[in-house]
Description:
The protein is α+β, with helices and mostly antiparallel strands. Helices cover about 30% and strands about 25% of the residues.
Amino acid sequence: xxxxxxxxxxNANHFHWHQVLSSEAEFGSRLHxxxxxxxxxxxxxMHKQLLCRINNERLSVGLNLTxxxxxxxWSQPVYPGYDSKLGRGSVQRFAPRPAGATLLPLWERxxxxxxxxxxxxxxxxxxxxxxxxxxLGYQTGIDMGISALGDVVESYVPASANSKYxxxxxxxxxxxxxxxxxxxxxxxxxxKVGMRDPLFGQWHKFTDDLFLExxxxxxxxxxxxxxxxxxxxxxxxxxxxxxxxxxxxxxxxDQRAYVQLNSLDFTSRGSSSVLVKYxxxxxxxxxxxxxxxxSLPSTRGMVRIFLIPADVYLSSNVDVTQLAIEMDRFHVxxxxxxxxxxxRSSDSSFVAKRRDTLFELxxxxxxxxxxxxxxxxxxxxxxxxxxxxxxxxxxxxxxxxLVLSSLLGxxxxxxxxxxxxxxxxxxxxxxxxxxxxxxxxxxxxxxxDRPPPGGTWRSLMYREDGSPRSNxxxxxxxxxxxxxxxxxxxDNETNYLKxxxxxxxxxxxx
Length: 510
């Protein structure tokens, strides 16, 4: 999985997210991440989506789904080892982890103690942060506890307020980064390069399982949560920009990709840069076309689009919510009658909108041409190039699952500036409270934030009386991967010419 775990854009995305959502700006500053609306929920949701993407990449290359690095493994030798072969700046090197390393007994005891404290809070249904007592639960479409729980698990809140629950998430990163028990630290202690370590996904599988313990306590969603009376989805299709049949999507390995960075660990010292040339997963852009029939004079809603692998066996320790990639989330206004909605994949509220490289942004920041706020937000968002999981050379089947939900009365969406929001990656990077907060009040990942009835997303498409739900729909898609579009690794002249023509066409239309 080197093409995913070690991709500079993927790691830069993780770094940028923490720049915005786990800011080191001075406390009280408007740039401080305490100003972010539902910050703890964003931590939970973003890392859940990273887990979903890791799982889909694993399936694409024939690997098993991610196993958790949980309590049953803490007293055992840790595999695999990992050496990033990277340094911090030009001198200090990230320490490699030998295969079979073990946690110190002190670390294990501390992690178990912190885990027990968090589980006790989930069981009791409340957390205490300083003088604040927060009930964990769900009311009128809103998850009242997930953001506080996210802050507790991440250990984001000040130590004095969080001392009751310890330092679970961050302690795990630190322990893994020090498994070599020598000088220096491994990559897991840095959000700049932590995703490169294979244990990153395993650690976040464990933390997501912990969040699922809370979500399961909330039960299944009721018809009143899922229905949108008077609205019916009549069709859903995807069309690639290349002349492929509908619902046929393409990914490829761009062996001529490059990115300009100050360094691979994103340090900003000095004025020199590194031009990194590498093979990057990319895709052919595509468009969603959705038709909706509404019997209401006029109404507004939120479209949520998920990509779910088809025909995957799920063991008892994997939930479908850990496979469902949320591809897009956007606001729609519907008129009475038939509505046609066209949405480009690049418009997604999850992907980065700016095309400036991190090096360009860092240079402008050091020269005072952009503010720290502009720097942080410009780089935030999932890499557009990595919109789709790899798929397979033979074509891998997926389901695109669409949910059209009504707006809640408390939604900021009613008064939000949607022209401005559409220029940002608000679903991935959040919205500050002083800018109106998150426009969508429903739980992030709704309705696949909770395990669905029977463990299958298809159960959500039916009401409690067995009748079909008209505001949910799905379609089958196929993702085909081209490993060598330029024919660099092929001697077959026919394949070479075919792929050259294909890529020339692609470069012309994008």
